[in-house]
TrEMBL record:
It is found in: Nucleus. Transmembrane segments: none annotated. One of its GO terms (cellular component) is nucleus. Its main location: nucleus. Monomer. Keywords: Hydrolase, Metal-binding, Nucleus, Zinc. CDD domains: DUF1907 (cd17298). It comes from the Eukaryota. It comes from Penicillium cinerascens. GO terms for molecular function: hydrolase activity, acting on ester bonds; zinc ion binding. Residues 19-318 form the DUF1907 domain. This is DUF1907 domain-containing protein.
Length: 323
């Protein structure tokens, strides 16, 4: 697969905090942004596969929506561990989180995926090509909807993925991070776009910022979509994006708490056809809720968020579709 590498020139965390704070104050009745020592994100309610977001932070955009529309590319199959190798991560220890498509070739149908996986070496010479040399903690969730419309959120049976993937990677260590809280939305932007557009407006195309991490929908409700299985061949290709978004995707509204794994970019000056924001979520207290985050609902008045984010030092573009 073709892999390109794009370094990021990040401002200090304190500067990013100040920039984001101003935007949040315009969109939420109560909001705070600060630089803190990351709490242990393995603990409830986050239940992540590693304690933190620090240590060689990087982001990758893999594949893309052209692998789904207008006709699914069933050859676009990936391994999270192979992608970690493409991201030049160490097999000694590491952590990936993000959003993408589930491994249809493993589970038998198309679905959403919330990658959440860490690893540590078991031998003196670990390698991604020898999974016996590393200990894997795979907390990745598959979010799917059955033919009867029933939704489930379950641990993935494999460390694979497909079609499109947006990943934040690090050593998984604790360290300084951006802590963002927001309550009672008063503006039109959703939580993630409020953050990334504040960075776009301040830094423009000349200094793109790529962030990743996790946030908790602590209270309120939010709207999510979940991809069903691929249509039968007689209904392909998709006529247009309207058919895909309005006739094929399924939409759901769920109450908090929901854990959300996010990757976002302020700009795409290299023309890499990045997915500018991608957030997938899973149930914090059960096995049903989750999907692709859109926005909180009920006018946002009772919504509350808590986020821990970190900028990536390097962006990798992997297997970029030609179309």
């Amino acid at each position: 697969m073709n892999v390109t590498k794009h370094p990021r020139d990040n401002p200090p965390l304190e500067e990013l905090s100040d920039v984001i704070q101003k935007s949040l104050e315009a969109s939420f009745a109560n909001a705070t942004t600060s630089v803190v020592q990351c709490p242990d994100l393995r603990q409830p309610p986050f239940n992540l596969a590693a304690p933190g977001l620090s240590g060689k932070p990087c982001i990758a955009d893999i594949g893309g929506q052209p692998n789904l529309f207008p006709t699914p590319n069933v050859n676009a199959k990936y391994s999270l561990l192979s992608l970690a190798k493409d991201m030049q991560m160490s097999p000694t220890e590491g952590f990936l989180l993000g959003a993408g498509a589930a491994p249809f070739h493993d589970i038998g149908h198309n679905a959403e995926l919330a990658p959440n996986i860490s690893w540590k070496s078991k031998t003196e010479s670990p390698g991604f090509n020898d999974i016996t040399s590393i200990s894997i903690n795979n907390e990745t969730r598959v979010i799917q909807v059955g033919q009867d419309g029933t939704q489930s959120c379950e641990r993935s049976p494999s460390a694979n993925c497909a079609l499109m993937m947006n990943l934040y990677g690090s050593n998984g260590n604790t360290g300084p991070v951006l802590k963002i809280t927001a309550k009672a939305r008063t503006g039109e932007l959703n939580f993630t776009n409020c953050i990334r557009l504040s960075l776009r407006d301040f830094y423009g195309d000349s200094r793109p910022i790529s962030l990743g991490g996790a946030f908790l929908l602590k209270s309120g409700k939010a709207k999510f979509h979940v991809m069903p299985d691929f249509p039968d061949p007689d209904n392909l290709p998709f006529r247009d994006r309207t058919q895909l978004e309005k006739e094929w995707l399924t939409y759901h509204v769920f109450d908090a708490p929901v854990v959300c794994l996010t990757v976002m970019h302020s700009a795409d000056p290299e023309g890499l056809r990045l997915r500018m924001e991608h957030t997938h979520c899973f149930d914090a207290d059960g096995n049903r809720k989750g999907g692709h985050y859109h926005y909180d609902v009920a006018d946002g008045g009772d919504v509350e968020y808590e986020a821990y984010l970190h900028p990536a030092s390097i962006l990798y573009r992997i297997d970029q579709p030609m179309a």
